[in-house]
């Protein structure tokens, strides 16, 4: 339902922004566990999609890394620059050049800098409000409006709504993103684990790359493979262990590139669960769990990374264990409790 609705919205969006200087929404990409093929026990029931935004004609987006924030949770600012479109006009395109046309010609046109930016930077909250209004105005133009009832939910950094039809209901959250070059890495409107107060802060997200990885694995897996069941089993015992859902997901993704895919069959299910436990124990003992995307030489080649990310040193997600002996002791005790379970 979510995928079909996003296709309908995309077609309407193209007409809505065609003669404006607002960002151009692209085809939405489903992200998160629901689109990766597994549902954790404590899933919040929200189907999330990332809507890439392209700059409108006469504008360019430039990502600038913020100095604040930890390496594992980088944030960027999206600087908006006006660019000349005179050559495109000479080639027959009907475009106004924001740099060179007269104020009289531009009197009814405002650049993106005047509408959705704070200073020279794209504002997350202004952009989310504009996008929510765009979705609201587009709803009556999509075929789903005749069979579903839509109610918007308040959210300052995304567009979130509930769809209901009889006893059926689902919640959809449309996040906004700006792609880093031609890669599968984006900056997103969704806040990362830390709460970023700056409305011009766009956290980096690897959600699209992770979805592509799970789809890559699914195409090669034998029938009745249980790699996703392994994830679901471990999320059932997360409560009180001190290990996050993202830790288990990272462990399983790494093992999927190490253990041959033919060995994730039903008859080897218990052995694979034990492999995950052993791998976690090694990571906790040595205080090291590498980020799955950054610095991973086993990453499938079909997942595209920005040039600056290629060849970087692997990012250690367990670095805090090396810095804090008390946290390391707690992690070792949590692992021992998991072994007993």
From TrEMBL:
One GO cellular component from the entry? membrane
Query: Which InterPro entries does this one have?
Result: ITPRIP-like, MAB21L/cGLR
Tell me the domain of life.
Eukaryota
Q: Which SMART domains does the record cross-reference, listed alphabetically?
A: Mab-21
Where do the TM regions start and end?
Answer: none
Identification of the protein by name: IPIL1 protein
Species of provenance: Tychaedon coryphoeus
């Amino acid at each position: 339902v979510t995928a079909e609705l996003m296709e309908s919205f995309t077609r309407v969006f193209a007409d809505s922004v065609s003669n404006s200087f607002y960002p151009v929404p692209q085809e939405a990409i489903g992200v998160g566990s629901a689109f990766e093929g597994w549902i954790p026990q404590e899933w919040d029931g929200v189907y999330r999609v990332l809507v890439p935004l392209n700059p409108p004609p006469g504008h360019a987006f430039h990502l600038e890394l913020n100095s604040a924030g930890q390496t594992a949770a980088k944030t960027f600012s999206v600087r908006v620059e006006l660019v000349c479109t005179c050559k495109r006009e000479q080639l027959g395109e009907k475009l106004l050049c924001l740099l060179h046309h007269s104020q009289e010609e531009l009197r009814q046109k405002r650049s993106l800098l005047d509408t959705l930016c704070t200073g020279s930077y794209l504002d997350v909250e202004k952009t989310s409000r504009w996008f929510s209004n765009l979705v609201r105005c587009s709803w009556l133009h999509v075929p789903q409006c005749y069979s579903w009832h839509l109610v918007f939910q308040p959210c300052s950094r995304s567009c979130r709504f509930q769809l209901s039809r009889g006893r059926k209901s689902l919640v959809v959250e449309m996040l906004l993103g700006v792609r880093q070059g031609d890669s599968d890495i984006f900056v997103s409107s969704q806040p990362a684990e830390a709460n970023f107060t700056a409305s011009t802060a766009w956290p980096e997200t690897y959600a699209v790359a992770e979805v592509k990885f799970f789809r890559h694995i699914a195409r090669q897996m034998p029938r009745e493979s249980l790699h996703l069941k392994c994830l679901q089993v471990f999320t059932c015992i997360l409560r009180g262990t001190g290990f996050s859902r993202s830790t288990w997901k990272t462990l399983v993704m790494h093992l999927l590139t190490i253990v041959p895919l033919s060995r994730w069959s039903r008859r080897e299910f218990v052995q694979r669960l034990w492999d995950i436990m052993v791998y976690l124990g090694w990571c906790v003992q040595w205080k090291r769990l590498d980020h799955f995307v950054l610095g991973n030489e086993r990453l499938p080649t079909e997942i595209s990374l920005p040039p600056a990310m290629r060849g970087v040193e692997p990012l250690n997600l367990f670095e805090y264990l090396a810095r804090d002996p008390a946290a390391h002791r707690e992690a070792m005790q949590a692992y021992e409790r998991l072994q007993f379970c």
